[in-house]
């Protein structure tokens, strides 16, 4: 089949794939530049990206902003002509400041989920940076499109649809995630495309849709491309690549995970997420972890009542302390059996 292409400004992908951004520190300049160099869109996660900066403990906001600029510059040095993006969670405490840094560094694309990025068009105004919301329903796609159009006369440059099999924080309720069968990615894609159609017709502009959440092999890729989406988003499988920025221990945790080890959890900020049920997750289900430092990373977090610090848990795991950290993973992560290169993975996904 002829592959579609994703256009970001005057740049066009060779393969219609966005590498899902994974934080803390899982997808930085190494992974993002490798994907961009091979013709996909490489994504850097902005979540607590400054965890290795010397002043992170004392001033995490400034450390994160500085580290984001560094990683974008490093990725651009490694991939001068590739398409690079940044994923910034709307729930981040310093969301606007991080978005402004990304724009100043001339990032090609900003992707935002974990809330609706209502003010994002105003932040990228006057730049060449393109923007994309992450949605899990047609209603959410319509809401953000209507708001952006009314308030800024701007429509999404593309919309990313995430299904319930994605890793990390998810845009579904606990009830939806525990229902059987799970909400269908296929149905959600159709719903989103149907809700975007009036905006496309009224404005004479196509809004590309990119779909992700549980896409594992070429059969999955072909299934969603046949629906008319412009591309796919894949996160979990990129962890098991040589170029991924996470520790080898983190990658091995993916290789060792069994199907029954992967389940939904409720993160400290009240959002459902999908993770490996490791010793850490089992432990905090029975006892609240003592929190000695609050990094003020996510707006909904209440340190006095939260069961554990999500920043500390994610930093522990990416640094290799996988038994004492949080490891987000997609539903099909247990199917990963070996670590391969980014090139091998992308080639494998697009063999039909």
The total number of structural domains is 2
Q: Per DSSP, what share of the residues sits in E-state strands of 2 or more residues?
A: 5-15%
- How are the strands of the biggest sheet laid out side by side? 3-11-10-8-7-6-5-4
Morphology call: globular
How many H/I helices?
Answer: 13
Q: N-to-C SSE series? A: EEEHEHEHEHEHEEHHEHEHHEEHHH
What is the CATH homology-level superfamily of the largest domain? Aldolase class I
| Helix content, binned percent | 25-40%
What is the overall pLDDT average?
93
What's the number of extended β-strand segments?
13
User: What gap, in angstroms, lies between the N and C termini?
Assistant: 8 Å
Radius of gyration: 19 Å
| Content-based structural category | alpha/beta
What top-tier CATH class of the largest domain fits best?
A: Alpha Beta
CATH topology of the largest domain: TIM Barrel
């Amino acid at each position: 089949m002829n592959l579609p292409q994703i256009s970001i400004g005057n740049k066009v992908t060779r393969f219609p794939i966005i590498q899902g951004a994974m934080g803390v520190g899982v997808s930085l300049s190494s992974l993002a530049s490798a994907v961009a160099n091979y013709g996909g869109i490489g994504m850097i996660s902005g979540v607590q990206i400054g965890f290795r900066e010397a002043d992170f403990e004392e001033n995490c906001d400034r450390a994160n902003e500085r580290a984001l600029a560094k990683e974008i510059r490093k990725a651009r040095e490694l991939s001068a002509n590739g398409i690079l993006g940044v994923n910034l969670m709307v729930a981040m405490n310093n969301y606007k400041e991080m978005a402004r840094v990304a724009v100043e560094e001339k990032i090609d694309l900003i992707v935002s989920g974990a809330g609706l990025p209502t003010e994002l068009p105003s932040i990228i105004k006057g730049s060449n940076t393109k923007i994309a919301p992450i949605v899990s329903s047609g209603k959410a796609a319509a809401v953000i499109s209507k708001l952006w159009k009314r308030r800024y006369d701007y429509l999404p440059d593309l919309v990313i649809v995430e299904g319930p099999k994605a890793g990390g924080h998810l845009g579904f309720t606990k009830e939806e995630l525990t229902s059987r069968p799970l909400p269908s990615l296929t149905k959600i894609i159709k719903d989103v495309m149907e809700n975007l159609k009036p905006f496309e017709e009224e404005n004479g502009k196509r809004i590309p849709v990119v779909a992700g959440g549980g896409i594992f092999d070429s059969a999955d890729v072909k299934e969603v491309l046949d629906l008319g989406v412009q591309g796919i988003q894949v996160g979990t499988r990129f962890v098991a690549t040589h170029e991924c920025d996470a520790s080898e221990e983190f990658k091995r945790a993916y290789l060792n995970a069994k199907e029954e080890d992967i389940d939904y959890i409720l993160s400290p900020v009240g959002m459902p997420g999908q993770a490996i049920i490791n010793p850490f997750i089992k432990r905090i289900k029975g006892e609240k972890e003592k929190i000695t430092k609050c990094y003020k990373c996510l707006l909904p977090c209440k340190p006095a009542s939260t069961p554990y610090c999500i920043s500390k848990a994610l930093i522990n795991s990416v640094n290799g302390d996988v038994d004492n950290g949080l490891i987000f993973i997609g539903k099909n992560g247990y199917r990963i059996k070996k670590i391969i290169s980014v090139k091998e993975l992308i080639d494998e996904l697009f063999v039909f």
